[in-house]
Amino acid sequence: MHNDSGQIKAKKNIDTLIELAVFGADHQMREEHLRIIREMALGQGIFPASIQGLYEAAGKGLYNGITVPAINIRGITYHVARAVFRAARKDRVSAFIFELARSEMGYTLQQPAEYAACILAAAIREEFQGPVFIQGDHFQVRRRMYREDPEAELNDIRDLIQQSVNAGFLNIDIDASTLVDLDKPGLEEQQAKNSQITAEMTRFIRDIEPEGTTVSVGGEIGEIGKGNSTVADLRAFTDGYLSQLGKDVKGISKISVQTGTSHGGVVLPDGSIATVSIDFNTLEELSKVAREEYGMGGAVQHGASTLPDEAFDMFPQVDTVEVHLATGFQNLIYDSPHFPKDLLGEIHKHLAAQYNKERKPEETEEQFLYKTRKKAFGDFKKELWHIPELELSEIMRELENRFSLIFHKLNVVNTVELINGYCL
Questions:
Q1: Over 90: is that where the pLDDT of 339 sits?
Q2: Does residue 308 contact residue 275 with C-beta atoms inside 8 Å?
Q3: N or C: which end of the chain has fewer CB within 10 A?
Q4: Residues 6+ apart with CB under 8 A from 192
């Protein structure tokens, strides 16, 4: 009995610690609580890790038929991460990634140190043990900012990489695909700037990564939502990238490609999501070339969370190395019958007033709200964290079931030994 009460106290303690780390009165208090959580995690055998070893093994053909889910958590991060870890523990899942994009850090008001602490605190709370993979998603070169001042934009990305690696993000996706120039005559010229900057950022990461750790770095060849990638695109980018990188520098472990999806899905006038057709043959071919010709883990699929359930079975079958999932989980939260109606009404009213300039003339109300509600994760950060416990636990139960389904469909159940074999 005494032991049970001690465990309950410890669990309540981590709830308090992470809340103070996120919402503490001043910067110093938040920093101190972030530090305490990191130390507690290490003391319990929970540590940020790089997935590099697993993807190198895929590149050598040592395993196949597994697709690693990369989960973007835009809000209520501690609670959502707890649901992920519960689903993971249930089926001995170790091959999964938590990630946050550069753009998401802005509108969700989550800096790398806070995000990593929320993940580690959730692992402590759910008694998870072992490596935890945290990833910087779409560390993207903003085309307009780059044109105005290239070095300032690249320095911003370097600062973000440094901050993220310090926080425990040991997996970084560089996205310079925004600089692909389709007006140039040849594929190599089109991809040249993308290759150059991805190589430059890879070298920077290698210079700052912790001793004894190889940060897993990803590249991207086609902007998500634009034209589908081809094998010729992949070769043009990778050959240019490797020539810029230098012989003794470890290169990218995976390559993000475009095969028919878009971030967040395509929302119809009634607020529902259009059915999307992914070109799985192209995805399979791109993964095969990435592995067999360049030793990478394979191709990465973005913008997949709003796909129909049956599509997820296909990713392991075509050896997709990783799949990125975000908006579907956001939708599950907002559209849950357990989401407080008064809070939802307040959010909708706020979005209509605050972001009215972003509304396009042809958009319906449903389309506008669907497009902008991701920003409420930052604007209503505290209110969402403090949704009443009964409603919040029901929303999290729905999410846990969703994570569990995805783990099964992507074939990452019983991956503890696989991860321990390649990533420790």
A1: yes
A2: yes
A3: N
A4: 181, 184, 240
Per the domain annotation, does 10 fall within a domain?
A: no
In a domain, 2, yes or no: no
Residues 103 and 137 sit within 8 Å (Cβ to Cβ): no
Residue 269's domain spans which residues? 18-335+369-423
Whether residue 6 has pLDDT greater than 80: no
Render pLDDT for 30-76 as a digit per residue (tens, 0 to 9): 999 999 999 999 999 999 999 999 999 999 999 999 999 999 999 99
Question: Is position 7 within any domain?
Answer: no
Residue 130: name the closest of 51, 201, 62, 186 by CA: 51
| The model scores a pTM over 0.85 | yes
* 271-326 confidence digits (pLDDT tens): 666 666 688 999 999 999 999 999 999 999 987 777 888 889 999 999 999 999 99
Note the pLDDT of residue 112: 98
CB atoms within 10 A of CB 202: 24
Q: What CATH number does residue 383 fall under?
A: 3.20.20.70
Q: How confident is the model at residue 270 (pLDDT cuts 50, 70, 90)?
A: low
Residue 416 in any domain: the answer is yes
